[in-house]
Design a protein that fits this description.
The protein has 240 residues and is of the alpha/beta class. The chain is built from ten helices and ten strands.
Length: 240
């Protein structure tokens, strides 16, 4: 079966600095796959490269077997690849409801009301805050809104970049539970970049470890969770 996402020998540069050095990653339809690694390892660069900004200098990115390596970002989004970026980047002056409108797929506006209700069921806090401006929400609420806005596009592939960053453990648990639920009930395919290796590996079917712009290890989520090398490097000596 052809993977929904294939990243093949991708190299990405910022000027003369190589940020990704021959990265190979695959995501099958219906999987949750995570990419863990230290800060500055190149995880977010890979996410942005998949979305076409920056573009890979060498290598190939395929989505549903189609080459998207040189495609502009807006065309990639039209293929129903949605991203919840690092740092949330919601529209702070718009209300929660208006942010969800901005995320809605133009091709699927007939489902808009149904999709909004689904987001409010998934994240009840957003329903309570629907007329509030995005910029006045707490960090956790903004992260929920960022994910919900991405989901409004009815994505075939959801890219999540550091969804737990700076959030309280209880909020993180709720967000990861929502992702798990969508995967189990609707078969949502998720590629997740995360510094919280423990939560990410528990959630994921498969995982990759990135060090200095290179994938150094791959395996099942639970398998890497039990790996002594991974535990020592990313799980604070296995205290979790």
């Amino acid at each position: 079966m052809t993977p929904i996402l294939q990243v093949k020998a991708v190299e990405t540069y910022y000027g003369n600095i190589r940020a990704l050095a021959g990265v190979d990653v695959e995501v099958q339809k219906g999987e949750i796959v995570c990419l863990i690694g230290a800060n500055g390892a190149g995880k977010s660069t890979l996410m942005m490269t998949i979305c076409g900004s920056p573009q890979a200098r060498t290598g190939q990115i395929l989505f549903e077997g189609r080459d998207i390596t040189r495609m502009p970002t807006h065309e990639i989004a039209r293929l129903r690849i949605a991203q919840s970026p690092e740092g949330r980047r919601i529209f702070p002056r718009m209300t929660v409801y208006e942010n969800l409108q901005m995320g809605a797929s133009l091709d699927n506006l007939k489902y808009f009301d149904e999709d909004v209700e689904k987001m409010f069921t998934l994240f009840p806090r957003l329903k309570e805050r629907q007329s509030q401006r995005g910029g006045t929400l707490s960090g956790g609420e903004q992260q929920m809104l960022s994910i919900a806005r991405a989901l409004m596009a009815r994505p075939k592939l959801l890219l999540l970049d550091e969804p737990s960053l700076g959030l309280a453990p209880l909020i993180v648990k709720g967000i990861f539970e929502a992702i798990r639920k969508l995967n189990e009930t609707e078969g949502l395919t998720v590629f997740l970049v995360e510094q919280n290796a423990f939560a990410a590996l528990k959630l994921s079917h498969r995982a990759y470890v990135m060090v200095n712009g290179q994938v150094t290890m791959t395996g099942g989520g639970r398998e890497l969770l039990a790996n002594p090398e991974v535990r020592a490097a990313y799980l604070e000596g296995g205290r979790h």
